[in-house]
Design a protein that fits this description.
By secondary structure, the protein is mostly helical. It contains six helices and no strands. It has one domain. 77% of the residues lie in helices and 0% in strands.
């Protein structure tokens, strides 16, 4: 390859790599959002059934076994994780809030923030979201 063609090819390759990285990031965020909404739904349903049917905590253990058996390829249905889902749904009852803020963070960030009050958690989410926006802008040369 001549130097001009090699330079054009290198620039072309870099553009493709950047677009692939952006698309992968967007896809991961979409999957993450759907999983968080699913986890919120599961947690809400557990809370409602425990309240209306008087089910105890043993139902979560059984639910864990049944969901793992039905969906062996999926992770996240451990007893502990189902309890986190229940707690998550109890703390975030406003689905619009879940969709707008909480769905921007991976599940682990929500589980990690267990010790925080709702106000502290909301502030942490907003801070993390602002930081992530700054990183993206910095990567593209637009940071303040």
């Amino acid at each position: 390859m001549t130097k001009i063609i090699a330079k054009e090819y290198t620039e072309f390759l870099e553009q493709l790599k950047e677009q692939i990285a952006i698309s992968r990031y967007k896809a991961a965020r979409t999957v993450n959002k759907e999983l968080l909404l699913l986890y919120h739904y599961i947690g809400t349903q557990i809370l409602e059934k425990q309240k209306s049917q008087g089910w105890g905590s043993k139902v979560i253990e059984q639910l864990s076994r049944d969901l793992k058996a039905e969906f062996p390829e999926m992770k996240g249905f451990s007893t502990r994780n189902l309890k986190y889902m229940r707690q998550f749904a109890g703390e975030y009852q406003d689905i619009e809030f879940v969709q707008q803020l909480v769905a921007q963070l991976p599940w682990g960030h929500n589980v990690f923030s267990d010790g925080l009050s709702s106000g502290q958690r909301s502030e942490a989410i907003l801070h993390k979201r602002s930081y992530r926006t700054w990183l993206v802008k910095k990567h593209h040369g637009n940071a303040d």
